[in-house]
């Protein structure tokens, strides 16, 4: 009787091991967060070990050199570094980055969490979300994160001001050097 159960158990284990549904394959739609470049830009690793840069959609965090820029980066890092995420959206910006909402496996929307906790603005030029607008308003009223400042500067204004304050030598492209070309020798017919 024991031999019969042992044989049956052995056959079941072999069949279970051969079942393709029992082998865990990496999910092509799941990415690992391997870098936090700033509050709203992540470096992800695909299931086939390709790197992908993702810009968080519909929000804009303070620049790293701006007030609360480092705090936004730390918040993003604490929230998702080393974790698996899924993306909603697959458009690309002019820098080749994927622009998407980033969702943790527990369902947390990283983009919305940044706004809710006062580390990002809703980027109204690219977002019409009433939910994001409400989250930003709540963060403002509760003086969370960057809303502790009396008059925080939106990052799009900060970037524009920084660009305008560059010295002229950095704003205008340098003229191309013109090299003197050798004039061909003219041959005279005799």
From TrEMBL:
Residues 157-166 have a biased composition (Basic and acidic residues). GO terms for molecular function: endonuclease activity; hydrolase activity; nucleic acid binding. It comes from the Bacteria. Transmembrane segments: none annotated. Residues 174-184 have a biased composition (Basic residues). Residues 27-149 form the TNase-like domain. Keywords: Endonuclease, Hydrolase, Nuclease, Signal. Gene3D superfamilies: 2.40.50.90. Residues 145-190 are annotated as: Disordered. CDD domains: SNc. Residues 1-23 form the signal peptide. This is Endonuclease YncB, thermonuclease family. It comes from Mucilaginibacter gossypiicola. The lineage of its organism: Bacteria, Pseudomonadati, Bacteroidota, Sphingobacteriia, Sphingobacteriales.
């Amino acid at each position: 009787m024991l031999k019969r159960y042992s044989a049956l158990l052995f056959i079941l284990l072999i069949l279970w091991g051969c079942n393709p549904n029992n082998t865990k394959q990496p999910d092509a739609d799941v990415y690992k967060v391997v870098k936090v470049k700033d509050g709203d830009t992540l470096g992800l690793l695909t299931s086939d070990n390709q790197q992908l840069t993702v810009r968080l959609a519909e929000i804009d965090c303070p620049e790293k050199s701006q007030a609360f820029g480092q705090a936004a980066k730390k918040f993003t890092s604490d929230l998702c570094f080393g974790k698996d995420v899924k993306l909603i959206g697959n458009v690309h910006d002019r820098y080749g980055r994927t622009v998407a909402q980033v969702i943790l496996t527990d369902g947390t929307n990283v983009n919305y969490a940044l706004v809710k906790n006062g580390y990002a603005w809703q980027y109204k030029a690219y977002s019409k979300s009433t939910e994001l607008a409400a989250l930003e308003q709540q963060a403002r009223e509760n003086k969370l994160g960057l809303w502790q400042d009396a008059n925080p500067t939106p990052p799009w204004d900060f970037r524009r001001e920084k660009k305008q304050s560059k010295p002229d030598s950095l704003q205008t492209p340098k003229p191309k050097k013109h090299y003197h070309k050798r004039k061909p020798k003219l041959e005279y017919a005799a």
